[in-house]
From TrEMBL:
Lineage: Bacteria, Pseudomonadati, Bacteroidota, Cytophagia, Cytophagales
Domain of life: Bacteria
Protein's recorded name: DegT/DnrJ/EryC1/StrS family aminotransferase
Family designation: Belongs to the DegT/DnrJ/EryC1 family.
Annotated CDD domains: AHBA_syn
Source species of the chain: Spirosoma sordidisoli
Active site per database record: 181 (proton acceptor)
GO molecular function: pyridoxal phosphate binding; transaminase activity
Keywords: Aminotransferase, Pyridoxal phosphate, Transferase
A Pfam family per the record: DegT_DnrJ_EryC1
Length: 363
């Protein structure tokens, strides 16, 4: 069975060596030495000033909203994983959906400004598939109207824009380290800022609002454990190698798929990509479903990523039509993409896709 992704696991002896240290110290969580070591190494790897390692990629979105005092309307993307919208709703904010660009599927800056009202406080955008949004345009709009910018950068670890980590942009930027990501710690996430005062606030938010007996603010339990940090310390040095392997798989698909019948999103100029996903777009949902059936018959499980368009979720009370997102979400499919996927398997997957698409066109 070939799944849409496969988690990278480091050498077991390397991981066990970290576990032995944990057993010796009996320090399992609460800002332990491995967590601090991982934070320092990630900051160096990414070239960012402050990074708080947390329990997952959703709680850091919630922390970002709380830290910036966002309680009203937030203009956001309908084309993302549901966590982006859920974080807004969970924190009592009102998501206002701006449609996406038809070429890269990131939020369209031209669709943002008409949605701004006196209740708008922030823009929360997703760097879709690890590809950067139109950062300068979004920031210009935010500056014009006094809005905060939060980036859901869950897919971007190891990717850069104009020579800087994509995580370095916005008032706050968040990332996910779920087991399926380019860099993972089994479960985990981070929040990034270049502001010293904000970093201190986030530290307290992560740990119930206190350090020892010094209580400063409201807080939640967003800490992560030494066992998760140990996994991160094993995986982090391998990230360049993992991205190179993903790039190789990306090239296999590029050379074998018939792009007269399908398309894929374009990269934003200035992006050095991390090859997090391989999305392809069909002409109709019917074609997508036929391709999915053909792949599943060969024990290949792709994923409709992202589907549905978030502005159509049944529990979202506000509704803004987003015709591009609604249309694309019906037609986009992510093919298996992970280090070590063989050229033979990539060729087989591409052949199944090409044949299924050709049969639909014949019908």
């Amino acid at each position: 069975m070939i799944y849409v992704t496969k988690s990278y696991l480091p050498d077991l002896d390397e991981y066990t060596a970290y576990l032995k240290g944990i057993w010796e110290r009996v320090h399992l969580t609460n800002d332990g030495p491995l967590l601090r070591q991982l934070e320092d190494q990630m900051k160096e790897f990414l070239g960012v000033r402050h990074l708080k390692y947390c329990s997952n990629g959703t709680v850091v979105l919630q922390m970002a909203l709380k830290a910036l005092d966002i309680t009203k309307e937030v203009i956001t993307t309908p084309f993302s994983y549901v966590a982006t919208t859920n974080a807004l709703l969970w924190e009592g904010c009102t998501p206002i959906f701006a449609d996406i660009r038809p070429d890269d599927f990131c939020i369209d800056p031209d669709a943002i400004e008409p949605l701004i009202t006196e209740n708008t406080q922030a823009i929360m955008a997703t760097h879709v598939y690890g590809n950067a949004c139109r950062i300068e345009q979004i920031q210009a709009i935010a500056d014009k109207y006094g809005l905060k910018v939060i980036y859901d950068a869950a897919h971007t670890f190891g990717a850069s824009y104009n020579g800087q980590s994509i995580l370095s942009y916005g008032d706050l930027s968040t990332c996910s380290f779920h087991a399926t990501k380019v860099f993972h710690t089994v479960e985990g996430g981070c929040i990034v800022t270049d502001n010293d005062e904000m970093a201190e606030k986030l530290h307290f938010y992560r740990s119930f609002g206190h350090r020892n007996d010094d209580y400063r603010s409201v807080g939640i339990n967003a800490k992560n454990s030494e066992l998760h940090a140990a996994m991160g310390l094993c995986v982090l040095p391998k990230v360049p190698e993992l991205i190179a392997s993903r790039k190789e798989v990306f090239g296999y698909y590029d050379s074998r798929l018939d792009f007269s019948k399908i398309t894929r999103p374009t990269l934003t100029p200035g992006v050095d990509y991390n090859y997090a996903y391989y999305p392809i777009v069909f002409d109709t949902e019917e074609t997508l479903l036929r391709v999915m059936d053909a792949l599943q018959a060969q024990d290949v499980l792709p994923r409709r990523y992202f589907y549905p368009s978030l502005n159509t979720l049944p529990f979202v009370k506000t509704h803004q039509p987003c015709p591009i997102s609604e249309n694309v979400s019906l037609r986009v499919l992510c093919l298996p993409m992970y280090p070590g996927l063989s050229e033979v398997d990539a060729d087989r997957i591409a052949s199944v896709v090409n044949e299924a698409v050709a049969l639909v066109n014949i019908d």
